[in-house]
Write a structure and sequence with these properties.
With 314 residues, this protein is α/β, with parallel strands linked by helices. The chain has a domain of 216 residues: Rossmann fold (3-Layer(aba) Sandwich), CATH 3.40.50. The protein is 37% helix and 17% strand. The chain has nine helices and 13 strands. The strands form four sheets. A seven-stranded parallel sheet has the order 3-2-1-4-5-6-11, sandwiched between helices. Helix 1 packs across helix 6, helix 5 runs parallel beside helix 7 and helix 7 crosses helix 9. The longest helix is centred in the first third of the chain and has 22 residues. Bound molecules: nicotinamide-adenine-dinucleotide (NAD) and uridine-5'-diphosphate (2 copies). The site of nicotinamide-adenine-dinucleotide has 29 residues, from helix 1, helix 3 and strand 5.
């Protein structure tokens, strides 16, 4: 029996970059937060400041195994997100997305909890449609080095929609585009963390390919606001909903901006482009604007300033 009227919220992957910000925000909203994480790519340091809070609880657990809990809402974020991390153990990456989704959906089915899935713009693969809208089915290589992540996330979406159709679950699927901010892992190989660390250490800034490929970067606080708005939206809004910042930059522009902001003596150098690296990526966020009244507010330079300040403390 529930004796408190606080919402009990489960965050899987809560010790990761996005998960730790989400836990923090949910506590501010007055929720009882249970964070489960196997610490594959996240760290206790990301949540150590939350541990003294009596409404926060951490449990080390791998979502590929069943877990029995009583909760009102589930945010399913567990999954390594950077190519370096997810390609280190690709079989585990697929298991995390697929078995993890099945277990969390099973939990949601038993408890009647509403469940949110952290899906990704990677479901669009290397897209021929630009900017990407939710109707676009994507162009994904099923057997390449990114497939463990992309196809795992696509299968998780399938499972979410089948649990909705078959069992009537309350689902919320967000397709997240590149997001950055404090608590990104300094060695995760993602472009923002790499460039900032390289600039801070005075090392060469490694542009893969010729740097003309594009990405659109969302600051973490903007994204988390989108998560809450989607979770709290009406039951018929299942998504998928794109969440990301539509302002697009080339990777070379990003490198030049970070170098200018950090200062120092680093040089821009070209390195081979990894396999299946998407040429372009920019979200169409009309759906989120219309139904969630949401759009990012933090411009790139402002977000980068906070992120650089965080990396300086490491
Ligand atoms: P992250 O690697 O920092 O966080 C993922 C967390 O999941 C880590 O703490 C990791 O230890 C945990 N985890 C991994 N496998 C697990 C398992 N089997 N059981 C329990 N915990 C497990 O990455 P992030 O950037 O915070 O990403 C969070 C979620 O958002 C991921 O699902 C990711 O796919 C999605 N996403 C992120 C971005 C982005 O730009 N950051 C973009 C698209 C989608
Ligand atoms: N599950 C879980 N916690 C729960 C309920 C289910 O981890 O509270 C897992 C369990 O391992 C199960 C999976 O979720 O295999 C899918 O559950 P579902 O009820 O859909 O399927 P079934 O139990 O019939 O296989
Ligand atoms: N990238 C780069 N140098 C780096 C790391 C990444 O040029 O040191 C490029 C990468 O090839 C890709 C883009 O930056 O085109 C974004 O890479 P990231 O791994 O951050 O995310 P994703 O490819 O998953 O969007």
């Amino acid at each position: 029996m529930k004796v408190s009227n606080r919402k009990r919220v489960l965050v899987t992957g809560g010790a990761g970059f996005l998960g730790s910000h989400l836990c923090e925000r949910l506590l501010l909203e007055g929720a009882d937060v249970l964070c489960i994480d196997n610490l594959y790519s996240g760290t206790k340091d990301n949540i150590s400041h939350l541990l003294p809070n009596p409404h926060f609880e951490f449990q080390r657990h791998d979502v590929t195994f069943p877990i029995y809990l009583e909760v009102d809402e589930i945010y399913n974020l567990a999954c390594p997100a950077s190519p370096v991390h997810y390609q280190r153990d690709p079989v585990q990456t697929t298991k995390t997305s697929v078995h993890g989704a099945i277990n969390m959906l099973g939990l949601a089915k038993r408890t009647g909890a509403r469940i949110f899935q952290a899906s990704t713009s990677e479901v669009y693969g290397d897209p021929e449609v630009h900017p990407q809208t939710e109707e676009y089915w994507g162009r994904v290589n099923p057997i390449g080095i990114r497939s463990c992540y992309d196809e795992g996330k696509r299968c998780a979406e399938t499972l979410f929609f089948d649990y909705r159709r078959q069992h009537g679950l309350g689902i919320k699927v967000a397709r997240i585009f590149n997001t950055y901010g404090p608590r990104m892992h300094p060695n995760d190989g993602r472009v923002v963390s790499n460039f900032i660390m390289q600039a801070l250490r005075g090392e060469d800034i490694t542009i893969y390919g010729d740097g003309s490929q594009t990405r659109s970067f969302c600051y973490v606080d903007d994204l988390i606001e989108g998560f809450l708005r989607l979770m709290n939206s009406s039951d018929d809004l299942t998504g998928p909903v794109n969440l990301g910042n539509p302002v697009e930059f080339t990777i070379r522009e990003l490198a030049e901006t970070i170098l200018e902001m950090v200062g120092g003596t680093s040089k821009l150098v070209l390195r081979p482009l990894p396999h299946d690296d998407p040429r372009q990526r920019q979200p169409n966020i009309s759906l989120a604007k219309e139904h969630l009244d949401w759009e990012p507010k933090v411009p790139l330079r402002e977000g980068l300033e906070k992120t650089i300040a965080y990396f300086r403390t490491l």
